[in-house]
Specification:
five-stranded mixed β-sheet; globular; 9 helices; binds iron/sulfur cluster; Uracil-DNA Glycosylase, subunit E; single chain; 218 residues; 7 strands; alpha/beta
């Protein structure tokens, strides 16, 4: 489907004022955009209500799509390592994605990751808003450009705001936020760095950002 085709958006499928468990049960029925059609299943979130840190990624990857769990692939393992290295207990973290279905294109039998477009990010945002309401985090960490576009409701150069704690009113228009936001890179970007020293430095920068987010809510 072309990116300029209007999608219905997830509103009709998001139960109002629902706890996370109910959101998880409702999400498989969502037809807010076309991504549900080719994906194996919806991939919602992991974590508990009241977790002070909400980490928002891009979308599920191939492995997540097959397992139905967020952040279980290589990028997810790297993120877990970074959370540990930042000294953050995992039960203080709620992880989710801006887009809940896997977008890909086929090359032969291989499924190649395709970045979600605004035409997927915007229809899927009602789920994230419902998670904001249910989890009520003390800070939201946006991992990478797609998460930033969803969380802030606008495009921002990551390098310009990275590592800074932005106030809730940093979001555009009516995209209300429950908490301050810290922008950092997506862990998958680290996987593309070939030089080991550069990758180590990038990992440390991610750890520093996560620690800054945790410190901001101490
Ligand atoms: S990606 Fe989001 S809006 Fe699109 S069908 Fe999946 S849950 Fe619904």
């Amino acid at each position: 489907m072309a990116d300029d085709v209007e999608r219905p958006g997830a509103d009709a499928w998001v139960p109002e004022g629902a706890p996370v468990d109910e959101l998880r049960r409702a999400a498989p029925d969502c037809r807010g955009c076309e991504l549900w059609h080719d994906a194996t299943q919806v991939v919602f979130s992991r974590g508990r209500e009241g977790a002070p840190l909400m980490l928002v990624g891009e979308q599920p990857g191939d492995r997540e799509d097959l397992e139905g769990e967020p952040f279980v692939g290589p990028a997810g393992r790297l993120l877990a390592d970074a959370v540990d290295a930042a000294g953050i207990a995992r039960d203080r973290v709620y992880v989710t994605n801006a887009v809940k279905h896997f977008r890909f294109r086929l090359r032969g039998k291989r499924r190649i990751h395709e970045k979600p477009s605004v035409a997927h990010i915007v229809p899927c945002r009602p789920w994230l808003e419902a998670e904001f309401e249910a989890v009520h985090p003390s800070i939201v960490v946006a991992l990478g450009a797609t998460a930033v576009r969803s969380v802030l409701g606008r495009t921002v150069r990551i390098g310009e705001v990275r590592g800074r704690v932005l106030p809730p009113d940093a979001a555009a228009g009516a995209s209300a936020l429950p908490a301050p936001v810290l922008v950092t890179t997506h862990p998958s970007a680290l996987l593309r760095i070939e030089d080991p020293a550069d990758r180590t430095a990038a990992f440390q920068a991610l750890v520093d950002d996560l620690r800054a987010a945790a410190d901001a809510v101490e």
